[in-house]
Amino acid sequence: MVKFRIKGRATPAEDSIALRVVVAVAVEVAIVAVVSQPQAVAPLTAIAAVILAPAGYLFSYRRRSRSSVPLKVLLSFALLAALGQFMGSASSAVSVDQTRLPLATLFLWVQVLHAFDVPRRRDLAFSMVSSLILMAEAASLSLSSSFLVFLVPWMALSGAWLSLSARPRPDQVVTPVAIRRTMPGAGRGLRAPMVSALTSSVVAVLAASLVFLAMPRLPGTFVRTPPFSLAGRAAQLSSFDGGVQNPGLADPGDGVVDFSADGYPGFSDVLDLRARGRLSDELVFRVRAPHAALWRAEVFDTYDGSTWTMGDETTVDLRATTDGVSMQVPFPIVKRNMAVPDAEVRMTQTFYLEEPQPNVLFGASAVTQVYFPAGGLKVDRAGSIRSPILLDEGLVYSVDSILPVLDTERLEAASGEVPGRLAPYLQLPEGLPDRVGALANSITTSAGSTHAQVLAVQSWLRANTRYNLDIPRDPEGVDAVDHFLFETREGFCEQIASSMAIMLRTLGIPTRVVTGYGPGERNPFTGYFEVKQSDAHAWLEVWYPGVGWVQYDPTFGVPQVASGFGSRFMAGPVFAAVGRFFAQVVPEPVKRAIGTMVRTVGSVGRLALSAWPWVVALAVLGATVAWVGRRRRSDRRHEPDTIGEAAFVELVQALAPLGHVRGPSETAAEFLQGVEADEALDDDVVGASELVVRTYERERFGSPRAKPTEAEALRARAAAAQVRHLVGRH
Amino acid sequence: MPRLRKRAASLLAGAILLFFLATNVQSGWLYVFSALLLGALLAGWLMPIGGLRGLDVTRHAPERVHQGDGTPVDLVVSNHTRGTRRGVRVRDPHLEVADIWLGTIRGGEQVTVTTLRTPPRRGVHAGDLAALGSNAPFGVAERRRTVAVDGPDGSRGPSTLVLPTLVPLGPLPFIEPSATTNHAIHSAPRRGHGPEYLGIREYRSGDSMRHVHWPSTARTGSVMVREFEQEQTRRLAVVVDAARDDGQAWTPLDRVCCAAASVCSTVLAQGNGALLITPGDGHGTDAEGLSGLDVSYRGAQDEILERLALLEPGGPSFPDVVNSLVAGPELRGVETAVLIFPTWRQNGAEALPPAVQQLAERILRVVAVPVVLAREDSKHHALEAADVAGLEQRLRAAGAVVYPWMPGHELEAALASGRVT
After folding, report:
1. In this predicted complex, what is the ipTM?
2. Quick count: other Cβ atoms within 10 Å of Cβ A253?
């Protein structure tokens, strides 16, 4: 009896060892990525997951063709237990961040348990999705570029999985009786597949890079409680009265606290302009923030000719808020230390400490709320927040800030008397030479407003002074600002900021000097701002009547609060990072050659721009010629695209010898009418012709629902062949 | 452009979800993951564009095969470029739709793949097209291209004629074997419609215009026709019902053709001649739309098989066919008429048995071979099981020997099970 093959409905077990190995290794990489994150999972869970997952995949491979119902029941109970454990941990979490860790444990157990029951290809695909979730979890916990160690192999394995699983399953294709490959010349080596795999990888990475550069960073966070935690036990200060304590400072050998590799002397009660030295490039902390900002720490208002101090060291306690997890800076202090904005940007920043820091909290001005793993925080009148514990490595805290967006016109219009309470910010040392004030006056002669005066002084400093860390200590008895402005004109950011502050004070404009950290460099992968010891910085704040305190940085500039559309993309930080990398590793001659090449390309580009009508015309002409040539080649070698079209073409060819030659503008229906009108033709020929033409018309012009099925198209093809056969018999 | 597959939607959904998460928790690495998924989507979409360039297909397939027989078909796919083509898949509809995975084809390589096809349909299978596909490297999108397939000699569009399934039957109970197998060939010739040419005579009313001999007509001035041998040994006629059909593979008409071909082949093998009567194909069709094919020589089996291979559904209903045979000249000299028909409702107890009874009164023996349809053959047009039993009973009552071919049964067993009532 004739037997026809009937395809089974159940999806068969996956037998490909290569596919299983790729998935198992990708999952293992993802598990290791998660357990490698600090404090992500308990050590015992980590060890169990690393060992059990591969064992599960081996077990599943051996049992792939057997019934797995009892196993599924068992795994379901285990999953419920893992879920119960997660619910227990999550219920005690006070922030979203604290739920990430139990979530990582839950994902790990889900992955491990799932590994024991992956008989089919679809199950392996779920494993890959699960490994992606694990990698995402690890990525969200990772703070540094070292995550690339896990990402690169996982990417390669995922590419291999995509490639292997794109192959049809054995039940989806016909098993050949024999397959022979003949290759002229060399035998089948591994070179061609490797080149193909490499090409695919490069194209995919390039495409991903372009997407990454074009991907906007939108301010869309819904996280209401940002993270804060201690790495270990808090290093409690023995006697905390709100003062600044910085254990990293060097010993004052000659009465001046110099810069040490890990200690910036500006984080103390005194900012000494005589201090010299260099800070290291050690990473101090990472900041997760949507915008760059100056991370403000302390404010100094009293200058004695060589040092800045705080005139009023009074501090007040921060108040606990109703949410029970954060503390609020008293509103009068916030209001007193920020400008009255035209618009404001609220920004949450999370600081991840990598090196011990003094007990001063950093944050973009003005900080309104603090999420900190210890109580008893204090704030001084200038908004500098002090902690009763030292900021140790591993500590995490977050702050909310209000960043004012100021309209230049309002600053330009700002005028009026300086209130008496701001007198400390106009203080000048008694021995300040007159030439400092004279210089300020000469610089601002043409300035018609306070704002114009501030900008004029800042511009003069930028144009006439130079940032230099290799300057000798000032001679004894000189005023640091005077010496900088009239003798050296080279110095640290402290000298530059102090000079601007003092010159403005001579003009009657209240100022104060601020210390903290610069924004640091944004890591294009993690998105975190990475701040180094050497980013320690000093700048100033200027008071405008009716506006309030506004930041100025004559050394490097203040990052804009209302960033433009371009700052939403990673292209800038990426190109900057690439540039820094090449600047470090590329030899000078190569850099010069690249520079020449870039200039040449730029010249050609400018030439093309100047003659753009000709360039456009040539491009259009070239494109037209190419299109016409392609069209002609395509027409010459036109072959039917579909089975129905092939049937119609064959019908037309078969009937041509009988005088039914299809005209150039004749439609298929008109051609059929001619055939039907020919009484000399057999009914079978006419009937088959009608079948072919109607199928062709449905295929070509029919709605998607009316399109013929493959079986119908093949039937039309057979009908056309039958017409050829019948006509040939005549 | 390559067609996107379901996997593309998954990658896009994953990328959007990761982007949302990245935006929400401000994690840069999640942006990286989102970009990676989109990058894989983009690369997987763009890379298959040139993935089939320079490939051509040649096929080696037999010219004639039987329906249902495993047939080896060689497909040769050549890569005429220097580049490697990856993830190549061929969908070849010739004889039976076959999806064949070829994988990687390096530059200049030629892959010959032999597959076993089981043609599900009779008729001419024109195989001048095949579809190439590639979803390499990531299975995100598939590039498809329909290519013309050459034959081994470079001819375009090699076709295969699928003949009906031929079942070897033992001695048929309704046929007495001839003395020798040469009897059919060497018996005394009589004028008639046999295949052997006897001479030329004047036209008579009823002669087919196909037999007009134009040179003699021109020479004599009157219409002359060719005269053929009347096959004296033709004692059996096989009449098939091709009025309708249903299904895609191993259809009722396929089974009818299988039974007809097997019976005719057996008759020929036993040294008898046979007359195959089918609905007309345009050659020798009479007024009732029937076509008779005399077979009585050794090579005739091919003609029968070809006729049955090309038989398409259509023509008069089977009771009308039988009625026209009763009235017509087709069954002159026929001792036994074998009626092979599916148990369509139009062949029910009310319609067919009266015609069969008239036929049984005219010739010596009427054999009915109802091809009993299963429920899956046709829900609306097939007789119910009870009606089939009634039909058999009425046919026997009409004087026919009934050999029902039940679904799932062997034809040989079915033809040995008949009985005269």
Report:
1. 0.75
2. 8
